[in-house]
Amino acid sequence: MDVVQTLKIALRALRTNKMRSFLTMLGIIIGIAAVIAMMAVGAGARHVISQQIASIGSNIILVIPGSTTSGGIRTGTGGMQTLTGDDVRAIMTECPSVESAAPTVRTSAQVVSGNLNWSTIVMGTTSELFDIREWGVVSGRSIGQQDNDGAAKVCLLGQTVAENLFGAADPVGRMVRIKKVPFVVIGVLERKGQSPQGQDQDDVIFVPLRTAQRKLSGSQFPNTIGAAMVKARSSELLNKAEEEVNSLLKQRHRITNNREPDFTTRNLSEILAVAEQSSKAMSLLLGAVASISLIVGGIGIMNIMLVSVTERTREIGIRMAIGARRNDILLQFMTEAVLLTMIGGLAGICLGAGGALVVSHLLTWPTMISLQSITIAFVFSGAIGIFFGFYPAKRAAGLNPIDALRYE
Length: 408
Fold this sequence. Notes:
Oligomer: single chain
Distance between the termini: 26 Å
Mean pLDDT: 84
Radius of gyration: 33 Å
């Protein structure tokens, strides 16, 4: 018996009991749909996380001052005023694995333009920060060295601030007041979107570092900085750059081996790795839960195939009597089981893809359906048919022809 003939017989057997065939496939359909939907949601989550991390920049190390104790109360990280602009310049010149470094001073302020105002973050920094964060200017120009040296009262607006203060108008050349100090808008930054922590990165104003230290921060230590952002020359040199920064700052701050450093370094690539690992673990967990439906569906198929073998015992006896071999019977029932699971798998793939699109539309969350996930789901559904269909097929092939013919 050739393959085509076997397929025709299997399809005819499935068409004979359409409702039973559909109910048998239902477990596979639900299981495959759940797997496809979960993998699509998981891939979408990983894509979002990667985009958010990439929006910060690549190969970046964040250097933050340590904590301090006042009146028996210990502040959190960043409470000390231990980092200075000289530290950042030393990092740039004395750490061979470092490509660039930028100091930052952060404060919050109510920004006013005409009769509109907006509460936002004001960051003082140098031009290197925008190269480190790969943050371009869509209108106007960036902060230059002359702006910083002269403590110029100029600013760069994030997209959120520009929209709330100027609407659709071009703010370049217009005036804003930050803590009652007038600043000229020299440019607008391109949109960055949300950070991995869910913060709006575009809700910010950048001013020259020296301007922020002298006019806005109000710190008792005007030469100190709030943090430093360091970029390594490559991802391979990231860990080495972090070691060099740690070693240099310990040397500059005279930190001995038995003293706790007055600063902290954070490797943002490690945050990316942790976030991606968490997302992958969640996808695997959801996929494992969905796989339970596939196993239940496979058991259902084996049960129905055993019933089918019992119902068609006389038919099997007749085929054996007219020359069908045991392998032909085995192949016929295996084909029926695999067809059931693969048709169910195709239906499940369509249902899962549709479910993923619905989730994406309702939750405005990106979902990504890959060819790899479809292939895995399709092959897995076929494997379930082979695994759970083998026992009923073997039982049919093992029937005695004479006993099968006598079966009523």
